[in-house]
Inverse folding.
């Protein structure tokens, strides 16, 4: 059964209380735009099309995580339709005082597990000017990929909390590497200096500019990709990758099955890491950075190799990494603790309280027992 919430997309902002009420069919792009126009934000992901529903329930990670935390950390209440009695349903209001366990679970426990969220209430954060950087290296510099990743991982997770930074490399066949990010405030010279160890490698094209947060978000939000197939996987890197692990990443990118295969990393630490792992269902807070990789394909004959590459990459990284992000689900993961760590047991308790008959279930949903 598909429950389509896309027409429930109203957004109401109360600036005096610094609270936004958002129906869950709104897209992430609509929420960021509505808030950004009036100088506010919730930390979220970086693309327009994902729904705020799934993004928030699973966490919502992006370049404001180090300065503000996650989308789910700003969820202070929600309306949810939950199962009730034989084939019945009930609409409940959830907040810190009512159904607090369910609020805890909806802060990162993943969509589709407990009921249908129809409306979210977010604490919103004032934000004005930010400084962005955009650095790209062409194929002549692909030889530096290991050094770039190594310097990026030692620099950005411990940098000033106002910096949120990404690093991504395409396969050797494609040859491009990029790092970009957002620094809160107008500090172009300070940002350039902070990034110097990275920008000094090879000959990147670099732009550093100051603009409103909304313009910065729109600048980085990519237009939707043309239709294609894809397989993603993700991990959290808790201790900096040692040279052998970086060599593994290098080797997978050098031998990727399709040119579009890539890795994407997001610096962690700062505000997201200061919240205890058991305070919300979102577990992976103490990592240094997040990494995902994917191998898109359009031709059916490429499917086997593309999927095998993603799965073998995951296996090869296992000695060096932990966990996975529930919003980038990977069906090769068999143990739900990979997503939820020690929070799985409490998520199951909440499941037993609100959906004991397991009405809401799918391949990797939280089972009551
Ligand atoms: C192009 C792209 C870029 C992305 N970038 C980021 C990023 O920067 N940061 C990040 O954190 N994530 C990112 N993601 C991952 C994104 O968080 C997930 O894909 C998320 O699941 C999207 O939510 P959705 O509602 O659009 O998806 P859906 O597939 O509709 O939903 C995902 C899950 O949530 C459930 N769900 C959805 N809405 C509700 C609701 N109202 N009530 C109950 N359950 C619900 C669904 O049943 C399903 O189980 C990206 C995804 C894409 C496609």
């Amino acid at each position: 059964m598909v429950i389509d919430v896309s027409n429930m997309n109203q957004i109401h902002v109360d600036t005096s209380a610094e609270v936004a009420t958002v129906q869950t069919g709104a897209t992430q792009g609509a929420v960021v735009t509505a808030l950004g126009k009036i100088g506010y934000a919730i930390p979220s992901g970086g693309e327009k099309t994902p729904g705020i529903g799934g993004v928030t329930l699973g966490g919502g990670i992006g370049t404001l995580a180090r300065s503000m935390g996650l989308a789910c950390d700003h969820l202070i209440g929600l309306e949810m339709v939950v199962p009730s009695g034989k084939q019945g349903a009930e609409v409940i209001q959830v907040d810190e005082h009512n159904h607090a366990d369910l609020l805890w679970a909806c802060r990162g426990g993943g969509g589709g597990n407990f009921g249908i969220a129809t409306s979210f209430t977010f604490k919103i954060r004032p934000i004005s000017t930010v400084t962005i950087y955009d650095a790209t290296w062409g194929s002549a510099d692909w030889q530096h990929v290991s050094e770039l990743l190594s310097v990026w991982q030692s620099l950005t997770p411990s940098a000033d909390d106002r910096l949120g930074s990404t690093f991504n490399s395409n396969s050797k066949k494609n040859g491009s590497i990029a790092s970009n990010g957002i620094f809160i405030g107008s500090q172009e010279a300070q940002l350039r200096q902070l990034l110097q160890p990275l920008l000094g490698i090879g000959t990147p094209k670099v732009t550093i500019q100051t603009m409103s947060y909304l313009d910065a978000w729109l600048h980085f939000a990519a237009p939707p990709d043309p239709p294609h197939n894809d397989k993603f996987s993700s991990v959290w890197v808790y201790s900096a990758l040692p040279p052998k692990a970086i060599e593994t990443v290098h080797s997978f990118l050098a031998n990727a099955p399709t040119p579009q295969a890539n890795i994407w990393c997001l610096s962690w630490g700062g505000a997201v890491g200061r919240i205890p792992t058991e305070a919300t269902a979102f577990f992976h807070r103490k990592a240094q950075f997040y990494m995902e990789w994917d191998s898109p394909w359009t031709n059916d004959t490429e499917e086997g190799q593309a999927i095998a590459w993603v799965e073998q990459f995951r296996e090869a990284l296992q000695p060096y990494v932990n966990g996975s992000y529930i919003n980038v689900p990977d069906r090769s993961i068999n143990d739900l603790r990979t997503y939820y760590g020690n929070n799985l047991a409490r998520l199951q308790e909440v499941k037993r309280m609100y959906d004991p008959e397991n009405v809401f279930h799918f391949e990797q949903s939280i089972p009551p027992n």
Summary: The chain has a mean pLDDT of 97. The chain has two domains: 11-126, 129-320.
